[in-house]
Design a protein that fits this description.
Layout lengths: L10 E8 L4 E8 L7 E7 L6 E2 L12 E2 L1 E5 L8 H11 L4 E3 L2 E3 L4 E3 L14 H9 L18 E2 L9 E2 L2 E9 L5 E10 L4 E3 L5 E3 L12 H8 L12 E9 L3 H18 E2 L9 E10 L3 H21 L13
Parallel strand pairs: 6-9, 16-18
Antiparallel strand pairs: 1-2, 2-6, 3-5, 3-18, 4-9, 7-8, 10-11, 12-13, 13-16, 14-15, 14-17
Length: about 325
């Protein structure tokens, strides 16, 4: 049974991974009949975002649908992966009709993973194109693949005390009043400044305190130091996509992405810091009539689940350990 983002009909996901440079990108393709995209929305929080084509997703802008979303490592360099995705879509005739051309709409968000692998390794257009070629409707591979390749969490004391994390996905299905299955799913690349916590607030993956420390987690460190200013911790950010088969307007899709950020705050502590560029996209394929409020509530739930799965699916890299089983 598929319990990942690709459980949503019309959504395919592909990863491209650099296992040496420890970076990669993940592409979410919207394959609706006739080459149509999906209604899109976005919500960006935190003080250090790296994004592309997010303004057009906001209400009062012309374009209503997107054809793909790119999640990538490499910090701002990784935004180049979207060029390869545009090439892939253009070759297949997908895009917004603009006079003599069709222009693929490909929003993107990046995370900073340059501190774990090679600082000069980052996703480019060729990697974005390769991720498209690898895209499938099969259950999404999780852990240290694609945009999750170079992820880590708990970086307030730098990489020496962080924990490896990765990419995770989850899906929930409920029955609507007319008996139709409403599906809401999330795919999250987990590279937070803070710690990933479970439903009870226990740390799953995060800061590893030095011996003899009087704190056990990031928030504990911040409180113990009474810090007013912190050194740059090595880059952070959680980025991801929530998708649904619900029929939503652009305004409603933006509200769903906003509500999904509540799930991020449930699973990451602290979230949305000045070192994070937390960005969540929303995609709606329009098959089922449903309340946007219900979709948003479920989006928060699957976002939290996907983040925890991304932390638990990671494996150790070099001297950076993974979460305890």
């Amino acid at each position: 049974m598929n319990t990942t983002l690709t459980a949503i009909p019309g959504i395919r996901v592909g990863h491209a991974t650099d296992p040496v440079g420890l970076t990669g990108c993940t592409v979410i393709l919207c394959d609706r009949p006739g080459g149509a995209g999906a209604v899109g929305g976005v919500d960006q929080r935190g003080g250090a975002p790296g994004t592309r084509e997010t303004d057009l997703l906001r209400p009062m802008h012309l374009v209503q649908e997107v054809h793909a979303v790119v999640l990538a490592g490499g910090s701002a360099f990784g935004l180049a992966a979207a060029d390869g995705v545009m090439r892939y879509l253009r070759e297949r005739g997908a895009g917004y009709p603009a006079g003599p051309a069709r222009v693929p709409i490909v929003p993107a968000a990046v995370l900073f993973d340059l501190g774990l692998g090679a600082a000069d390794a980052y996703p480019d257009a060729a990697m974005g194109y390769a991720a498209c070629l690898a895209a499938t409707g099969a259950p999404v591979a999780e852990g240290n693949v694609g945009a999750g390749t170079g992820c880590s969490v708990g970086k307030v004391l730098g990489m020496a005390h962080a924990t490896r994390a990765g990419i995770g996905s989850a899906c929930l299905t409920v029955e609507t009043t007319d008996g139709s299955p409403l599906q809401v799913a999330a795919l999250m690349a987990v590279n937070a400044f803070g710690d990933v916590v479970d439903e009870a607030g226990r740390v799953i993956a995060g800061l590893r305190p030095p011996p003899g420390a009087r704190f056990s987690d990031t928030l504990g460190f911040l409180c113990s130091q009474r810090a007013t200013e912190l050194p740059w911790p090595g880059g952070a950010t959680v980025i991801g996509v929530v998708a649904t088969n619900a029929r939503l307007t652009k305004e409603q899709a933006n509200k769903v992405s906003q509500m999904a950020q509540d799930g991020l705050a449930r699973a990451v502590r602290p979230a949305h810091t000045m070192f994070d560029g937390d960005t969540i996209f929303a995609l709606a394929t329009g098959a089922v009539a449903a309340s946007a409020t219900l979709v948003g509530a479920l989006a928060a739930e699957v976002t939290a689940q996907a983040i925890r799965r991304g932390a638990q699916a990671a494996v150790a890299a070099g001297e950076l350990p993974a979460a305890a089983p």
